[in-house]
Amino acid sequence: MSAIKNVMKNFARNAELDEFLEKQLKDAGFGGADILKTPVGTRISVFVTRPGLVIGRRGVGIRDLTERLEKLFGLPNPQISVLEVEVPELNPRIMCNRIAQMVTRGTAFRRASLWTMNSIMEAGAAGVEIRVNGKIRSERARHEKYKEGVVPKSGDTASKIVQEATTDVLLKLGLCGIKIKIALRDSIPPEIEILPESLPESNPKNGGTSPA
Fold it and tell me: First CA to last CA across the chain, in angstroms?
């Protein structure tokens, strides 16, 4: 197998694995996973808001998940570590799922989007953009956009500080898509800082100050 085919095969497998984890750990607040292949096996770091639901009582949940990954995807010696997301409001994947859960329970898209946007900004984000597409209120598909703060669109700054995620939700009127972009304030390069001028040192011989 050529190097390109091998890379594409691993990419497709990781995409399927990520989709599987999202469905299985939806109730635990799945926020993404890092998959790393090592000489001794496959290391998977899972980010969730409620690690207890993934680990289970006496580790039953994590063992069952490990066995299923090894059987379904043929992963050699999978090692799963569960990490808690410290600030869920700054994770676009978690916030997409929250909007999907809210509208499934009957909350209007506009109300759910505005509540989510305010939560993200209060958590310390530099900016947020929420896009909703599909049959939101009627049989005719439409598009809605909500934005607050600064969200760079292109360039090196956007690639460093903007994180985005998409999801879909099936309602009675049809399928709707949700996309969230979050600009992280801590990832922005520091602005120019002007240091205060140092005070001149005093000259003890003449009781004055030494010239600058």
Answer: 71
Q: Position of tokens 């305010």? A: 118
Q: Give the pLDDT of residue 203.
A: 57
In single-letter form, the type of residue at position 143 comes to: H
Q: Long-range CB contacts (< 8 A, 24+ apart) of 40-44?
A: 40/77, 41/75, 41/76, 41/77, 41/78, 41/79, 42/75, 42/76, 42/77, 42/78, 42/79, 43/79, 43/81, 44/17, 44/69, 44/78, 44/79, 44/80, 44/81
Judged against a pLDDT cut of 90, whether residue 131 lies above it is answered with yes
In three-state secondary structure terms, 118 is helix
Residue pair 174/150 in contact (Cβ under 8 Å)? The answer is no
pLDDT at 138: 73
Report the alpha-carbon distance of residue 26 to residue 120 in Å, rounded: 20
pLDDT digits (tens, 9 = 90+) for 87-105: 999 999 999 999 998 998 8
171 and 135 in contact (C-beta within 8 Å)?
yes
How far apart, in Å, are the Cα atoms of 176 and each of 99, 115, 137, 158?
11, 18, 11, 26
Residue 8 Ramachandran class (φ > 0 left, ψ -120 to 50 alpha, else beta): alpha
Rg over alpha carbons for the chain, rounded to the nearest Å, is: 24
The Cβ of residue 50 has, within 10 Å, a number of other Cβ atoms equal to 16
CA angle, corner 48, sides to 85 and 92, nearest 5? 70
